């Protein structure tokens, strides 16, 4: 397995809890340790200087997630910090505010990704972030009354929309003598936006000078629904629906890993191998779809690349259907393992999967001939959608988007889980930082996933029959200790998919927060698109491989 230090990188410096305490000093009001990381409680007006010190002095350059929540006596923002060089080094910065004045200093000048995070926290919970450059709602209309995840929110309250909201959006063209720019709406109902995404674009001639992604058209209350479900049985069916087109088992693993660590549940080794194999099948299905739709975005090739990609994706979907019984909403993982063993006859299942893997190299060669070797595709993708590594880190980008900018970050290797650390495979990176590099990363990751699946099949084929334990013994009712908090993540097809859970002592989470890689990656679109042309904007959006069900959640 790749060590991540092939290019002369220095191993990250280990920062102890005592070092963190000394760095934060008397700005720490209290300690609030989480299961995954030490936690420090600070004042609302110390946010920027504490986060700056942690980033610049201690190397915590990855704002992985921001969780906002309301207690009976306070509001609270939790900044989950990691290191791109070593995500096992984590720290939680907890910022409480009073209930009558929920105002906290913005973290946006330190981490650009805090822009969207803090807008979402205000929108759903009701915390104001002083100094925020764009303090608007992000998921709900500006006319919305109340904050849906606050304690006193009335779900039965009717929402009144002002008359201006009903104004005709198709207005006559008008010309401003003082400006040569044009405002252009892209979406929200357009095939190249990969879902119901509205992009407000300002053009100067054909050059993009401003981009504002408008999300929230597909918000489905996933976090609130998970807070109303029991740990043991009722939450697991929901993760399939976040990235609903291809990454179901990867999503399920994010919840499984978090809840299992929260409740101290062991997973049998045999079940870990099955999880690893099936998750990589989902990764291949996801990347096949990404390649197919990206080709469609870039040069409208429906008959060749799109159809080829869907053809090969169907084969992996058939295998997943044999394993799980479903094609999209798998609901196959269980806390403590998986639902059942390989289908019988297992030799036939293993042979079918091997046949797919044997034919994969020829199919990848075909994609290179049709896609990466295509002159139009190269012209459209080389040196467009540039995302420099430091900018990508500022926006919390992960997955193929980050690795296409040369960031060697993959949780399967860097924060091992499942059976990955026992297998031989490599993390793929490209240094081009453009749309073309992101395509190359996904295509090469298909081959690395195939390596992992092949090794898992070898293990499963030879596993002693009397040791094939698919689930550990898990209590029917799980009630973690009150105020136990944890953040865990897995390497989804699109990047770091994380979940924060706070237990309130019942069999349901007190707070359930989803960290979506698509949410972070999409927030970087303006950086990639400004100064380029509209077709480049479409290509850049396609290269992010977003799914709006996961962006809006």
Structure description:
Residues 1-9 have low confidence and may be disordered. The strands form 6 sheets. The chain has a 5-stranded mixed beta sheet, covered by helices on one side. It has a 3-stranded antiparallel beta sheet with strand order 8-11-12. Strands 15-16-17 form a 3-stranded antiparallel beta sheet. The chain is globular and about 65 Å long. Helices cover 38% and strands 16% of the residues. The protein has 553 residues and is an alpha+beta fold. It is built from 17 helices and 17 strands. The longest helix has 31 residues, at 269-299. Helix 5 (248-263) packs antiparallel against helix 6 (269-299). NDH-1 is composed of 13 different subunits. Subunits NuoB, CD, E, F, and G constitute the peripheral sector of the complex. Residues 303-553 form the NADH-quinone oxidoreductase subunit D domain. Keywords: Cell membrane, Membrane, Multifunctional enzyme, NAD, Transport. This is NADH-quinone oxidoreductase subunit D.
Set out the fold topology:
Blueprint: H1 17-24, E1 28-31, E2 39-42, H2 47-56, E3 62-70, E4 75-82, E5 91-97, E6 103-105, H3 114-124, E7 128-130, E8 181-186, E9 189-190, E10 195-196, E11 198-204, E12 207-214, H4 222-227, H5 248-263, H6 269-299, H7 302-324, E13 333-334, E14 337-338, H8 346-372, H9 375-381, H10 389-394, H11 399-403, H12 411-414, H13 435-462, E15 485-492, E16 495-503, E17 509-515, H14 517-523, H15 525-529, H16 534-544, H17 548-552
Parallel strand pairs: 2-5, 6-7
Antiparallel strand pairs: 1-2, 3-4, 4-5, 8-11, 9-10, 11-12, 13-14, 15-16, 16-17
Helix pairs in contact: 5-6, 6-7, 6-13, 6-16, 7-8, 8-13, 13-16
